[in-house]
């Protein structure tokens, strides 16, 4: 495991007082070490989990050539351009049962979708294209060509071919693919455990009586939602008051139980509280001012307790800053911790419906609403007030407009990048 000092030395031009958003991710990729412990799970239980091995297909899918349509299978060498083809129906093949008879020249086989194509037959003419006269059919000219409507053995996967790679997050399609290979169980990395708590004497837990100057805790709930969507096992540690003994106990308990700790609040400049001091005392922690908006202050590092080590993400206190720093930094870092292969978020491009003021030299994430204009293009406007405490705007938005580090002002109609929330929020 590398220390903060070692990682800092590896990153050229590292300045904790003005670190760029991009460099934060580089730093975190070095700080976080993926989980290695695995477990075997049934396919139904593996949704959202990270595959811990490459999966090689033990069988070919489909296992034999079969019909893609309900129709008549025949040998296409009998087709003549521009001429109808008359054929006698030799029998019927159903899906799931091999047909035992033989089909000679001038004959065809009535065949259902998914039924095995007998040897020598390579083409299926769909039922609705043919004229039937008793035991005979006529294939009109130019309705099918050789090989049409035949699915080939192994066209999905051949036996021995790589079906899924280690690090793949198992979504619905991957579950179906595993099952299609006849695999009842799959090896995945164990779930990542993340403990989180909110800090600050002004933070009320739900159920507490409001008092002057106090606000209800929202960060624990957004963090809970974000972590759950990511597939993490969550450990909710509540609100921790600004008391050294309470903070110390919370950090130690969290480090003992979890792979990662997420706190919110108490990391800004000039904080009169004890959160930063306790992080410094208990762990190897860097305190950053990130060249970004919102979410400038952040602490990252590691806290060890009784031989166990947990990665620490000390997020800012403001509710929108918490969500933005989570999406921009914590989420990719946790995906790495979970053993998932790196996947950069795909940014959409949309035309800005308004002028945006932006200073080069920092990354800005503005809450955006992307819509489709009548001409089919994507357009984005902001939710208005971009205050970092305006959580309602995160509900209203469907993505974040990403104004990159070097970018300046945006004029109406300029193209901007948008990170869509998708399933993350
Ligand atoms: P801090 O970084 O601790 O100074 O917090 C910055 C701002 O975020 C302050 O206005 C806090 O009241 C607010 N804040 C901190 N933690 C939370 C929380 N858990 N829920 C809602 N607001 C919070
Ligand atoms: Mg505070």
Task: Explain how this protein is built.
With 425 residues, the protein is α/β, with parallel strands linked by helices. The chain folds into 4 domains: 4-37 and 191-337, MoaB/Mog-like domain (Molybdenum Cofactor Biosythetic Enzyme, Chain A), CATH 3.40.980.10; 39-61 and 155-189, Molybdopterin biosynthesis moea protein, domain 2; 66-151, Molybdopterin biosynthesis moeA protein, domain 3 (Beta Complex), CATH 2.170.190; 348-420, Beta-clip (Beta Barrel), CATH 2.40.340.10. 20% of the residues lie in helices and 31% in strands. The protein has helices at 4-10, 21-31, 172-180, 219-230, 244-257, 275-282, 319-337, 392-396, and strands spanning 19-20, 38-42, 55-56, 66-67, 71-74, 85-93, 107-111, 123-126, 131-133, 136-139, 150-151, 162-164, 185-189, 193-199, 203-204, 215-216, 233-240, 260-264, 283-293, 297-305, 308-315, 348-352, 363-372, 378-382, 399-403, 415-420. The strands form 6 sheets. A 6-stranded mixed beta sheet has the order 8-5-7-6-10-9, with no helix packed on it. A 5-stranded mixed β-barrel has the order 22-24-23-25-26. It is elongated and about 90 Å long. It starts with a helix and ends in a 5-residue tail after the last strand. The model has no long low-confidence stretch (mean pLDDT 97). It binds adenosine monophosphate and magnesium ion.
Features:
20% helix, 425 residues, alpha/beta, binds adenosine monophosphate, Molybdenum Cofactor Biosythetic Enzyme, Chain A, Molybdopterin biosynthesis moea protein, domain 2, Molybdopterin biosynthesis moeA protein, domain 3
